[in-house]
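worker-03 picked up job from queue 'complexes'. Input manifest follows; two sequence lines, order preserved.
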Amino acid sequence: MSTVTTPSQAPTAPPRTPDVPRTPRRGRSRREGSGWPFVLPFLLVAVLFLVVPTLWGLGLSFTEQSLMGNGGWVGFDNYAEAFGDATMWSTLGNTLVFTLISTVPLVVVALVMALLVYTGLPGQWVWRLAFFAPYMLPVAVVVQIFVWLYQPEIGFLNYWLDRLGLDKVGWLTDTSVAMWSMALLTLWWTVGFNFLLYLSALQAIPDQMYEAAALDGAGGWRRLFSITLPQLRATTVLITVLQVLASLKVFDQMFIAFNGGSGPGGVTRPILQYIYDTGFTGYRMGYASAMSYIYFALIIAVAVGFQVLTSARRKEQRRGR
Amino acid sequence: MISAGRGSPGGWAPSRRTVLKGALAGAGALAGAWALAGCATGTGPASSASTRIQMWHLFTGGDGGIFQQMLTEVQEEDPSVGIDPVVLTWGAPYYTKLVMASVGGRSPDLAVMHLTRVAGWVPGGVLDPWDVDLLAEHGVTQDMFPPALWDRAVIDGQLWAVPLDFHAFILFYDRGIADAAGILGPDGLVGLDSPEGFVEAGRALADTTGYAGIGYGYTGDGAQMSRMLWGLYAQTGAEVVLNPGEAAQVDRDALVEVTSWVQSWLDDTVAIANSDYPSAVANFSTGRVGACFNGNWELQSFLTAEVDVDAMPMPTVFGSPATYGDSHVFVLPHQVNVDPAKREAAYATVAAMLRKSLLWSEGGHIPANREITESAEYQDKVPQSHYAAAADEAVFDPQAWFTGSGSDFQARVGEALQGAWLDKSSPEAAVDRLIGALDAALQTKPPA
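worker-03 finished. Artifact:
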């Protein structure tokens, strides 16, 4: 928008031409220079702890480096081994399963909670606090709470199932339940953040829209589907992207809940834990680095895929209008 | 609607600036306290010592206090050596830290680790061998130790570890409940020396308690499953040989026999099938079960719970006596430039700790020093002396670079067995999965 004003100012400029081109340039460069001290600390930390280790890891992935310090160049052997490693694929599968069964409820439940709080419930701040509070807890605390709830013999959940005459559930021991238990725990823990994002997005929808729709005779459901949800689309995309990336990084919950183990039949071990186990418990740093890079490539592919998908849709929408 | 949206908790809400200030002050206070605590731990009782050595160990539970007491007494006897202990939580990360400290050239002068992990470390050069002659000068000789422990500490003709103890996977029992169930003889439990006898005894205990007979917590815990499996497997007389690059040499039938036998008594009467470590401990502490398989390190918690507790080595169910366990050992992490005075102090400290190890049995562990376990003072200790025989029939995790306490492989054992023991799936399938995991691990090149 600011470009509109420039041409109208341009005619008044010529009298001062000798100075004009020089001053702004000098001013701009001075302003740029004055920014460096602020950026430098971050850059330093980023280079030291992000860029250098990332490149170092790439180098490691072509060696059979052990944590004990020995090892030499092996070329692409690690990558070849990884592609034939059934455990890598199965743990990758575990991570993807978790991402799927955690992301969907984390988006849907957050939306429902936000809608309920925004439209119906009195005492909004109480709900906001209650829903967001678990997010403030450290992961170790959350997992400890849930491990006690999930206890097979003396846990709260199985105690009440038993009292109600239902079968006890092997929350952490049944191969088909354990991952859901992890997702449930994660839902309780982090849904508050998505809830807050949705709530603020709801508050940003102009009231006139609802008023106009009400005047036209739109009911509650019509307003929900024709105004609220379309207005929330950008937020939903944002939350989904953030959530998918967060869920792909899952490690802590399983690592703590199963004491560094891999869950019943190995079904809860995410790929990051397999990489950790390989590198830091099995000491095979080279191979662990190679698997990290394979996974890294996959995450980048997902991120780029998202980008392409959303920007394509945005273009379509613009064309539609 | 909008006013509800903007509703604030009330007028007391602090401004952002005061909150930030408070948070900063709090963080500063915490950091300060941490720094002070860091200073405090550095100064031991013998701050005037001429030689100071740093020792890493992993005792944080009840045995941590006892270990510290031993260190204090050792330093009081010989004030010329000061010991700076670094205590780290036991678990896989302990070994990661110790290896990284060694590789980084900042290794401690002395460290405690598990005997089963030594084999994986020797090829990498992170340990220095012990000089047997120098040990003998300090009064530490081979004949002091049970052969099972010493032999495992010798690799390629060199001694890499000096055992402090053997900590065994034993059977605790409640004297009162066992007596009421009619299985208590004058010298402990009777009739447990056959697969059928053991199950019958378990039923008798269950009849007495009204809940279950024997506690065994294993779900989600590969270590607990490894302890049961390899201990019983050794009782059948079978062996395991793991050579990198080859298929695992195991007796599949013996593994299946052991696995199906354990499956048979995890029937919610003899033992609760879905029981994890803490609930098994809780059940035995509260008398809901009359006996309990666990490591001897739980002795103190049972005594604290005022159980009328006694204990015995693993019942000899399959013929030849064998009790699974591991051993805490002293090792010399590799030093680039060995300081002779510190090395000497390390040898002296280990010798003194071994002489003090009567105290070590308080924590439940069986001292490796036979002069202690054969002494009258130790024989008077009950129930410790009742299971001390476990050290003479000691069996360990199969020897390979990837096995042992705190290794990732114990989780693979757990993955394989839990299905058979908890979900009652086929023991053959579980054993095949286990052998598959062994073979896969043997195919990977050992890190060095």
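worker-03 released lock.
Chain A touches chain B at residues 64, 66-71, 87, 118-119, 122-125, 129, 151-154, 168, 170, 172-175, 202-203, 207, 258-266, 277-278, 280-284, 287 (CB under 8 Å).
The radius of gyration of chain A is 27 Å.
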